[in-house]
Amino acid sequence: MTAKRKIILHMSISLDGFFEGPERQIDWHLIDNELHHYVNEQLRPMGAFLSGRVTHELMVGFWPTADEDPSNPAPVAEFARIWRDMPKIVFSRTLEKAEWTEWNTTVKHDVVVAEIEALKAEPGGDLVLGGADLAATFRRHDLIDEYRLFVHPVLLGEGHLLFPAGPAAHEPTYKLRLIETRTFGNGVVLLRHERVRTPA
User: Rg for the chain (alpha carbons), in Å?
Assistant: First the structure.
């Protein structure tokens, strides 16, 4: 049986667990050429980017033309091309259609488990999940196969947590296995965990 594609949560967080500041600040991200090159190499073979509307609109605000600015470092220009070429699925209940079809984007209004499982069964690279709200929905449905968290050496003190506390009924416990750690020169540490599933 052919292995299904994985859904991989790929996000940066502070040491105290925030993915953004209280005003959506991400200027604390320590993205140098070494880390950006690594991220590009990891994302290039993926099959699609999955994101919510807010995350996607933030990406649209910069990446479509980032490689046209000669002041941007080479890894930034390289990622702009990766992002444009990659199929993108945006989950939003307010968007009626994708206004960015030239960037290979489609819109889905809900996270339907059967549809996600069918998407995972299609051929191609793994699927990259971005955005905390969408990740929470995928996590509640136990659809995330791997967590790739880039922990930045900063304490924000306040902001929006990637894993906020919630009622036990809505936040089930999942067992994970550490499969890789990597430390970058700027102090960022990659933690990769895979979901441990009991065979049916």
Answer: 17
